[in-house]
Amino acid sequence: MCEVWLLLAGKRTWLCRACRAHRGLSKDFWAEAAFHLLLLSKIVSPAIDEYKPQDATTNPSLILAAAQMPAYQELVEEAIAYGRRLGGSQEEQIKNAIDKLFVLFGAEILKKIPGRVSTEVDARLSFDKDAMVARARRLIELYKEAGISKDRILIKLSSTWEGIQAGKELEERHGIHCNMTLLFSFAQAVACAEAGVTLISPFVGRILDWHVANTDKKSYEPLEDPGVKSVTKIYNYYKKFDYKTIVMGASFRNTGEIKALAGCDFLTISPKLLGELLKDHSQLTPVLSAKAGPHVQCRERKIAPWPSGTADLCGIGAARTRLVRILHFLPIGAGMDQILCEILLTD
Q1: I need a labelling partner for 53 at 20 to 30 A (CA). Which of 28, 44, 88, 265 fits?
Q2: Of the residues 42, 52, 150, 156, which is catalytic?
Q3: Predicted confidence (pLDDT) per residue in 252-269, tens digit
């Protein structure tokens, strides 16, 4: 009932049992990069006890699916009751119930892990900075009411211009840590670093998908993979100019991409690809290294203020196309609204 993801962490020393069993990894590799787990979960499951994950993230599409399952109706009913107690219009009750539901799922997962959980701000707010800030602060307040410190929460925001500015305000003014998603370009990564956000999640596989769909070239060697090259450039740039934002490569299509980014701060690896890696006994050595960052030949870049900065972020093909794909997440939010609305009207 859950998806377990592996994190390849360049600065951690914690190892999970599954990774210790991987005989193909060199001792030198472990000195540079250690494995620990990130859980992408519908809700707490036996997999948490099995893999002992460190950190976790909730996903709107998975929560939407879980909200329709009998096993999680108790959480849905608690969220609905909360929305009703706050009152207001039907729309306001649904919005408050959704926030509560996301926090309930996150709180359940936090009972099982020592690290942090990421909770996403509604993607429908991706182009409204003030609304994202308000929603993020509301989520943190709900966690506080549940006895959970904001230090255990990462707020997930879309890497639009407005989202990045929201992340900057949340980090600087409110001490709220942010995980910037839907990141497809170097310009977005630079803007996130300048904003001082905690973590970015560049989408390796989706960058590859765009190039395959929009160019004549349909296959790439791992080190020439456009997504790999993008994350490598971002990682080296961050280390060169001593940005503290964590780079967490995500959305992989094959193990070649993963191996080509070994040594990155974090990598999230799907169960399928993790299984393939655990069966692969070839030697694996780090490709990326923070020590090499200062020697990379590049110039520091500054993102122009609004509105030119928006053009910087959206002017690259993959980024422009994929940022528009935020609209893909709108039906998820609408679907959640519909489910909770039906319960409100029937009870």
Answers
A1: 28
A2: 156
A3: 999 999 999 999 998 877
